[in-house]
Specification:
Belongs to the citrate synthase family. One of its GO terms (biological process) is tricarboxylic acid cycle. There is one protein chain. This protein has about 400 residues and is mainly α. It folds into two domains: about 220 residues, Orthogonal Bundle (Citrate Synthase, domain 1), CATH 1.10.580; about 100 residues, Cytochrome P450-Terp, domain 2 (Cytochrome p450-Terp, domain 2), CATH 1.10.230.10. Helices cover about 55% and strands about 5% of the residues. It has 17 helices and three strands. Helix 7 crosses helix 8 and helix 9 runs antiparallel to helix 10. The chain is globular and about 75 Å long. The site of carboxymethyl coenzyme *A has 20 residues, from helix 16.
């Protein structure tokens, strides 16, 4: 007995008050600091959105220049961190590397880890947002056996990520295509925050113990990895591979309906209407494929799935719409990003959201997170000596 309620999956529990993100799942509305997600994705840059998540408003020109400069300054990583990468097998999943290296950042910045100090908290937020593209690209370069690339001061955030992923030292004039850079930046914006999802709740729970922010973000990355959460974009592509071609769709749909498999990239705990991020992502997907002149049979297959799911009573009755990961996987594939990097990119983008929640938590009074349980084990019984045990 107690004053708590049994609530598996936290379906009915709001453990925090927050001013960062608002979702109306019924209407399919998503606002960051009050700004609608489609307006942000179509007009703002990811770093402006990151600033708004952290500070409450979009930056004015001076604040923007100052924030961008700080991010630029902190994009590089300590040279010793390269050695850390070398400890992993070359075929390690890049998410496995990310969980390790982001947690390891706490070993590099102990002098700024007093979480009761506002300046320390701020510099940590800057460091994390700045270093994520570099670390993410390094995890890819390592798997390829190519040298790590340093971020460049003349490139913006998304350009730098693409440059560090795809350029090599031999390729001094490397330049990304503007449509691709813009699409990459939009993907970052559309994944920046989503209130108390599993990984953000993990960051808050870890943070509630007073753990250092790098460790908290590493915990968020670990939670994001699962296929029900950030791993879904990778799972969408695997599913498309498994289906193979449009004529196999009806057979696959039968498996979905008999609950043998889930249609990855569909459904959401909160949205019971079209995911507003998916809408923007779908438009971006068309732009990228148009600009690159790609006519991908995977896309044709994805569109066939989308059409059936939007019309079939099984999906309609359960309000299962395509979510953000359904389209982001297709765009990333078109850009040439390997599937194993999809969730890493999600984690890069979500870092601004995670750290905003961590900062919000530390600027207001909070309690350690400590859920209760419904105990269903043995009741009281007496100890039995080993020789007398059955
Ligand atoms: N395919 C087929 N059936 C589904 C799916 C799906 N993707 N999602 C939900 N359902 C069914 C489910 O079987 C249940 O049916 P019934 O009531 O007859 O048993 C009903 O819809 C309600 O589903 P639920 O499992 O109670 O919903 P949930 O809120 O617990 O799960 C979810 C939400 C996102 C985990 C789930 O929809 C899912 O696994 N989707 C596929 C994975 C995916 O795309 N995840 C990315 C989410 S968006 C990005 C992010 O936040 O990371």
């Amino acid at each position: 007995a107690g004053y708590w309620t049994y609530d598996p999956g936290f379906m009915a529990t709001a453990p925090v008050e927050s001013k960062i993100t608002f979702i109306d799942g019924g209407k399919g509305e998503l606002l960051h600091r009050g700004y609608p997600i489609d307006q942000l994705a179509n007009n703002a840059e990811y770093l402006e959105v990151a600033y708004a998540l952290i500070h409450g408003d979009l930056p004015n020109a001076e604040q923007k220049a100052d924030f961008y400069e700080k991010i630029r300054k902190h994009m590089g990583v300590h040279d010793q961190l390269r050695k850390f990468f070398e400890g992993f097998r070359r075929d390690a999943h890049p998410m496995a590397i990310m969980v390790g290296v982001v947690g390891a950042l706490s070993a590099f910045y102990h002098e700024n880890l007093d979480i009761s100090n506002e300046e320390h908290r701020e510099i940590t937020a800057i460091r994390l947002i700045a270093k994520m593209p570099t670390l993410a690209a390094m995890s890819y370069k390592y798997s390829k056996g190519e040298p790590f690339m340093y971020p460049r001061n003349d490139f913006n955030y998304a350009e730098n990520f693409l440059y560090m992923m795809f350029a090599t030292p031999a390729d001094v004039n490397y330049k990304t295509n503007d449509v691709i850079t813009r699409a990459m930046d939009k993907i970052f914006t559309l994944h920046a925050d989503h209130e108390q999802n599993a990984s953000t709740s993990t960051v808050r729970l870890a943070g509630s113990t007073g753990a250092n922010p790098y460790a908290c973000i590493a915990a968020g990355i670990a939670a994001l990895w699962g296929p029900s959460h950030g791993g879904a974009n990778e799972a969408v592509l695997e599913m498309l591979d498994e289906i193979g071609s449009v004529e196999n769709v009806p057979e696959f749909m039968e498996k979905v309906k008999s609950r043998e498999v889930k249609l990855m990239g569909f459904g959401h705990r909160v949205y019971k209407n079209f995911d507003p991020r998916a809408q923007v992502m779908k438009e971006t997907c068309d732009e990228v494929l148009g600009a690159l002149g790609i006519n991908d049979p995977k896309l044709e297959l994805a569109m066939a799935l989308e059409k059936i799911a939007l019309e079939d009573p099984f999906f309609v009755e359960r309000n299962l719409y395509p979510n953000v990961d359904f389209y982001s996987g297709i765009i990333l594939k078109a850009i040439g990003i390997p599937t194993s990097m999809f969730t890493v990119i999600f984690s890069l983008a979500r870092t601004s959201g995670w750290i905003s929640h961590w900062l919000e938590m530390h600027s207001t009074p909070f309690k350690i997170g400590r859920p209760r349980q419904l105990y269903t084990g043995e009741t009281h019984r007496d100890f039995v000596k080993v020789e007398d045990r059955k």
